[in-house]
Structure formats: structure tokens, C-alpha cells
């Protein structure tokens, strides 16, 4: 059984994890015409804004209640009210998603009560959905904020179906984890639609952060799932959750609507995708399309081609728990040894990691444990460690700011797994050192030994 330990250092050195409010804000960016609002200081929001802009290379809608020292002590009602009224007046959103931060959580602001008071004072806001989620940044991590925001969206916006309401055949709810990219969501949508199903993703950053150029500028999110589509998710026939972090949201959906769910902890690798495809075939009642039978065959061939380069390789990986299992589990399937695994927060999936120990720590811990490894896996903040260790570096997760196309990386499905084999396999191949005349070791023959011995008289 995998041993889970927590770093006991006095401070974090080169942080691996990102805060809950950023995860919650990103989830809200998957809702169409939404304005995420961080209830905290301007600095918190500025940091998150810069991080998202560097990763996605897009304009990012993100506002703040701009709490000062005095406002924090006295309470933030006035700041929340002013922020909501200004946002509605200037940007005309369908929804405002409010994420708390450390300073307001320590103060104990009751934002749900604030919202009730604001609605009574401002009836003109009745058409705007106001969703609040508690995401203190002094605990938990990025994927926790995403998970909590998604759960609140389900609880606040999904309508309970009336008694006797029939399910809409072919409608499928999909709750993707924060470790999936916009490219991953596009791939999953194509797979699901090939079975004749109509998926609704919540959140859906494939529509809002996929790097397209909109016809018209909007200060809010310009894509994603709409508030009306979220409300109608209660009439679907099934829910698919991807990543253990989405279990609470799936359970909330089931409790609210009675829709059963299936959770997949990872979708990178042959066996996980076999299970996923079989599930879709069962839900739809249709056979697996020939396209995906061929993609499966291509993946098996890629595994045969690549296993020579993967087998026995030692890998150090640092990522959020669901990403850690997704990539770490696949690398182990390919024959690699996970010698060092560092993550950001506790999760039930850590027990499933194919390694002896998982450390909740930082990138310094990852670098220390990566001595002598063949591959380092983390987000862009791990690049200096890879350079110092002189090992190949695979960038995954968020942020990736020193390479193009981070939003379009695909690692799910048969095709995504196949391409990931080629990407990592090529890193291993590029790191191979071919022998040359200066490094060839010539066998020593008895004649050479005799001739090399000086004569004695």
C-alpha cells in the first residue's frame, strides 16, 4: 500500500501547488457570459490573472472586491455589493461566481447572507445568477477549489425535475476534473457524440479558453456552458465524472436529480479507455464505432513501438492528485518506475499510485527525490530543476507558460494516449547518447597486455 507523507519543512520552497480560489475561478470561467469575482485583496486577483494569461495566452475575465485592511476588519459587505452592482452595470453577465480568499475567510464574511441582502436591495439583479463558494487559500489546493465550485454550480443552478418528468434520451452530463485541458474536453465530446449522445459539460472551458478568436469582444467569458443548459442537466439519463475530485459534484447531482453516475479516475491508458468506451456503448445501446476500434489498434501498436524506450525508466512526477494518478498510472502501465511522487493535497486516489510513497510537498522535494531519474514531470515551474538535474522534462498541468499550445494538449482517449506515448518516447530517444570513437571501450587482449608491459633486464 502506498505510504502518504507530508513535508515537515518550515516553509515551501518553489511551490508546486496553487490555491483554491484560482481553481474555483477557473471553474466559473467554464460558464458562458460569467464573471468570476475573488472576494479578497487586489493582489490575490492580480496574481491569478497573470498566471491564467501566461498559461492560456488569452484575455481572462476576473474581478475583485478589492478588500483593504480596514474593509477586511469591518466586514466586506459594502465591497461585495459595490462589485456586483458595478459588474452587472458594465458587463451584463448571466452569472457572477464569487470565490472567497484567505483574508475574508479568516474574518468570517457570510457571503451567502450578503447575497440575500443585495438581492432584496437590488431587484434589478434578479436575472443574474450569483453563486458563492468558500475557497480559503490557506488550505487545500487548486483541484479542491475547482471541485467545490462545480458542486456549488450543481446545487445552485440545476433544477430539480418535477415529479413524473421523463428523461431526455441521449442527454449525458459530463463533470470533468481540473486536470483536463480544453483539448481534452473537445476529444471527449467527439467520442461521446460518436455514440449518438448529447453531452453537457460542467464546467466547459473548451468553449471559453480554447484559444479561438471571437466575432465580438466581451468582457465576460465568451464560451462555455450556459446557465440555462446547467439548469436543464437534471433531465439527462446519466452523469459521467472524470477524476476523484468530481465525486462530490456527481453525488450532489444524483441527490438533486436522481441521475446515476459513473466515475472514471483516469482516462489515459488502454484499460481506462476500454472501460470508458464500454460505458458509452452501454448507455447509448450502440456498438463501438469503427473509428475508435481502429484508434485502439493504433494505441496498441504505439505501446509495442514505445515499450523499448519506456521499460525500466525512473520517473519523478509532481502534480495535483488526479493528474498524478492519470499520468503516473499510465507511465507505470508503460513499464516505468515512479521513484518520486510529490503532490499538493490529500486525496483518496493517492492510495492507488503505483509507487511506494507519495509526498505532499513542493518542487524542492521533487528535485531532491529526482536525483538519477530519467524523466521529470511537472508544470513549468519545474523547468529549473530539470535543467539542474540534466534530465528530460515533460510539462503537464497548469501553468505552462514557456511553451505554446498548453490549452490544446490532449492526453485522454485512445488517440490522446497514443500521442502522449510518442511525445514522451521521443524525449527518451533524444536523451540517448550514441557511442562514438572516444567512448568505445576496446577489449584488452593478452597480446596488448604483454606489449604494454615494459621489458626488464
TrEMBL record:
Pathway: Cofactor biosynthesis; Fe-Mo cofactor biosynthesis. This is Nitrogenase iron-molybdenum cofactor biosynthesis protein NifN. One of its GO terms (biological process) is protein-containing complex assembly. CDD domains: Nitrogenase_NifN_1. The keyword Phosphoprotein does not apply. NCBIfam families: nifN. It comes from Rhodopseudomonas rhenobacensis. The keyword Disulfide bond does not apply. Belongs to the NifD/NifK/NifE/NifN family. Residues 19-427 form the Nitrogenase/oxidoreductase component domain. One of its GO terms (molecular function) is nitrogenase activity. Keywords: Nitrogen fixation. PANTHER family: LIGHT-INDEPENDENT PROTOCHLOROPHYLLIDE REDUCTASE SUBUNIT B. The lineage of its organism: Bacteria, Pseudomonadati, Pseudomonadota, Alphaproteobacteria, Hyphomicrobiales. It holds the Pfam family Oxidored_nitro. This protein may play a role in the biosynthesis of the prosthetic group of nitrogenase (FeMo cofactor). It comes from the Bacteria.
